[in-house]
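Query structure, 191 tokens:
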């Protein structure tokens, strides 16, 4: 199957799961980008809600010795969001000295710092996605610094949405293991 057809199929299938509560509106001019944007922001909001509801005292929790801690997941998502959204748009963000610290150091930052930085990365992606059009998705851009490969811009968008969904599933599992209910399992408010 042609790569662009696969991207279109993914864009049509994945967003239908979660469009009802999305803060981003479906765009008639750019239905593919807005569909991915809706899903990315939906999972970003689920993650932010989960991070907010997890007690700071459990941010060092990990189910087994080889898994990531909750704090590590938060800092990893922050870096990943910036990297993926910058990669798909060619934008850069101002870096600070703290950004160059080792992931294991950042993972031990206070909960408030981790959550604020994660939320800032979501806002950065929200802005980046707002400027994208469907016509840009098949454009060939770098697969990443130093890779020497070119990929359709849409691949970066697919990577962002799947990364957020994957890590939400990971965090939801952690929450259940420590006796918390993940945001998507809470009763929905009545209309």
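Result returned for the query:
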């Amino acid at each position: 199957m042609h790569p662009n057809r696969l991207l279109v199929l993914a864009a049509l299938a994945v967003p239908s799961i979660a469009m009802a509560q999305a803060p981003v509106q479906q765009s008639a001019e750019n239905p593919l980008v807005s569909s991915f944007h809706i899903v990315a922001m939906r999972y970003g909001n689920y993650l932010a809600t989960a991070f907010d509801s997890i007690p700071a005292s459990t941010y060092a929790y990990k189910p087994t010795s080889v898994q990531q801690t909750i704090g590590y997941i938060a800092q990893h998502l922050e870096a990943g969001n910036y990297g993926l959204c910058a990669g798909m748009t060619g934008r850069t963000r101002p870096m600070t000295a703290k950004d160059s610290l080792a992931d294991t150091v950042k993972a031990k930052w206070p909960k408030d710092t981790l959550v604020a930085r994660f939320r800032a990365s979501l806002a950065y992606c929200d802005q980046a996605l707002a400027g994208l059009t469907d016509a840009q998705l098949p454009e060939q851009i770098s697969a990443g610094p130093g890779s020497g490969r070119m990929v359709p811009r849409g691949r970066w968008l697919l990577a962002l949405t799947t990364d957020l969904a994957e890590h939400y599933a990971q965090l939801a599992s952690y929450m259940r293991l420590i006796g918390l209910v993940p945001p998507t399992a809470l009763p929905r408010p009545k209309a």
